[in-house]
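Could you please consider the sequence and fold following this short note?
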Amino acid sequence: MQTQVQARKKPVPGAPSLSVGVQTRFMSMRAPDAAPPVDLEARTATFSFSSENPVARYFGNEILSHDATAADFTRLNDGANLLFNHNWDDVIGVVEKAWIDANRGYCIVRFAKTARGEEMLGMINDGILRNVSFAYQVEAYTCDGEGSPDGYSDDESTYTATGWLAYEISMVSVPADQTVGIGRASERGIQKDIPVTRKALAPALPAPVAPPAAIAVLTKGNNMNEAEIAAAAAQAAAAQKRTIDEAMAAERNRVETIDIICEKHKLSPEIRTNLIKNGSSIAEAQGAALDQILSKKQEPIASLGTGNIGLSEKEKGSFSLVRAINALASGNWQKAGFERAVSDELCKAQGRQPGQGAFLMPTNLPFH
């Protein structure tokens, strides 16, 4: 049974995407009377952290598909830090392994040999700390649209994430209310337009309603005369035409922008055709261009610096590699001025001339 959400703000009917940032989900590591999932000697814990249970979001009920092609645990399996309450500055261990079994995500985490790590390990073993949460970014949704008379979204719509990347795992003291603002903004990354494939949409848009057909609908329960009915039908037809025109304009803009990106970065005709045919977003096309740039550069476009230019903890937390990569791909550093300034300072510290194709970053940033 899917969870209902009161006063939900619906997405625009038939919109091709949703604006969603990094989101979180939580679940209990074990039942109250179950044995703790802890190996005290190895300082590890093994537990499930994700499932396909629906969670109510502002746009509908969200399900994370756990198919092999949907869930991406690359970041977790690359030594992601284990955090407390999603606080980047409160590292209590490391994720040693993450995998999927029976439509659930499982992990093995190892706690740090620090006072903080000892504290967390002890509270889990004693059954005091029971909740786990993880952060993730959705890349694509499929919407069933069931229960909606117009085939678009309603309070019963289910959005299945057919592609999503797990960022980090956290032990949490108090589970957050996942229906209030979660996923609508993010301090961790860039707000993304997530493409939505709507299963219930009709193959073709309906033709404008003619006045005779409108009479039967519009006169039900009111006293509108024939002229008022005809005017209302004409207004509805005009609104429908605007919707069709806007959708066609958006598609033209997508194709034209992808063409420009492919031409500028000399992407192959096969890549261009696949991007357009598969309905790829402009952001995905920019990602393909970045892959091309990285594969052809003689010198790495982003390399690790060896110095520490004295960034404060707040400045370290503000540094975004994602913003820097997007700026490298687009050539526009307007939104990544801080990252550009840090790179320039590192270039100067290494006796290199800033702005000669390389992007440097410090090695002491809190990337998890």
